[in-house]
Amino acid sequence: MTMNFDFNNPTRILFGSGKLGELGSQAMPGKKALLLMSGGKSAKVSGAYNRTLEQLHKAGVEVAEFAKVMENPVKEMVMEGAAFARENGCDFIVALGGGAVLDSAVAIAAMATNPGDLWDYVNGGTGKGKPLSNPGLPIVTITLTAGTGSEVNCWGVISNLETKEKIGFGYPELVPVLAIVDPELMKTVPSKYTAYQGFDALFHNTEVMMSNGVNILSEAIALSAIENIAKYLPRAVKDGNDLEAREHVAYGSTMAGIAMQLTSTTAQHSMEHAMSAYHHNLPHGAGLIMISKAFAEFFIEKHACDGQFIKMARAMGMENADKPEDFITALVKLQEECGVADLKMSDYGITSDEFMDLAVNARETMGGLFLANPCPMSDEECAGIFEKSYR
Question: Which DSSP symbol is given to 242?
Fold first, then answer.
């Protein structure tokens, strides 16, 4: 456990029920906002859409709406959104939605002010890794889900359908300036997606705990988040109107966004990005759930970070946990309580002959996360985790 860390988070976070009502009194980073949303109806069903427009009007901000973000955002949509922002004279972005919208905001903010194609600036895979020539548009985030933690960090995950790559994109200068995390806006998220998103938030924190870069601050934040998610996610899944449960899960998700700035996640995320790069209908959280047990068991069998697994098991409610396998017991129990223990890779078109292709793709596109693993993992071992997870 290292005592050293480097932490800089310039995002102002307004957290708590009713906080959207304070947006209009905040200093805005511009005069005309690109209001970025998904193509669905979640923002309107939750009431967040009308309330956001009211607050932006109160702040004297004009709005141009771009509502074309899909579940797994693609490069073409990013480039279209960036062109739309330029054509409409938008000088900042208001991202209103879940993880896909928040991720897209980072990429659109960059491409609205920089020449060329998004993949010119992507690091990894076929990306050219160029530095940004110009600062991106400032970003205000209003999250409607509890999952990614992207409301407070500079990273987004974008897919290139042509090359079958799903890669994290981001630069420190793209960190949002203001984040609104209002659990009241999350009450209409369907049960299934509440579970998927909640486990995404959980795994951000468990991967920080497993990471070889974990430090005294990231561990403290991650354990607090794990405890809150494990205790309250089953309640949020069972009753979406349980505001107390929504608040605690949202806290765990936002804290993950901070913990990930202090310590990287691990190859579990690289592996899922490969899965959904090839099978675009696979929700990110569902893919993570499918491989989570075998992924953790790999490191338990290697005795790579036994103490970390014990700490996580205790945070998940097993007060007397004394062996790393207790984490698996707690994880499976939580998945059962949330109704996601029986997810099948085959239901999303994944076949047993793909495992090595997925393993190679995971390393080629987001190999940096493999370096954060607590011990080395070969392509063959990575493919073995897919095989062990397969149903």
Answer: -
